[in-house]
Predict the structure of Zinc finger protein Sap62.
Amino acid sequence: MDYQNRAGVRFGGGGVAGYQETNAARRERLRQLALETIDLSKDPYFMKNHLGTFECRLCLTTHANDGSYLAHTQGKKHQTNLARRAAMESRRGAQASTAAQPAAVSQSQIQVRKNIVKIGRPGYKVTKIRDPETGQLGLRFQLKFPDIATNVNPRYRIMSAFEQKVEVPDRNYQYMVIAAEPYESVAFKIDAREIDDSPGRFWTYWDAPTYTIQLFFR
């Protein structure tokens, strides 16, 4: 590492760099390497949230700036998750090719998805919870889907206040959106606090007809 241009140090007379300087230089090297190989506009896992920070949708991590995100993409965690995703998609592609139909398919054989008639909102219960050990506050959502469509599992999404079009955006809130055909999608308005995604702190459980989501705030 070349430190000859550091302020107050003559050529050849510099001392050994400290941990913070070495670490900063390493992050800058990773950032420069990433800039040469990654176009953020084409990165499917790069997302800027409503708080102005950046998120990696693959690793579920948050970064203060794009440089931090770029350094993260060169790290072991991101590269490992990329390899896992590639292996999973490769297996899915192999299964799809095995089960694929012949290329010559008539128009009458193509199945067109029909509009699904919604049957109303599911029953639900929301409970405030607190971890007795850490004191963290959390929420438990329980929804009932007795008439859910065949081979359909409920899905959830956490939406920022600026993505919805129902009410005036308020940065102090976010929305837990849950969908399951043929029921109408429902959304719960919750505080815009960071959700603890560490193991065992955020989980979902589908035991038909009950769908449960439990989360804790950091």
Helices lie at 19-37, 66-73, 76-98. The beta strands are 46-48, 54-56, 61-63, 123-130, 137-144, 155-160, 173-179, 186-191, 203-207, 210-216.
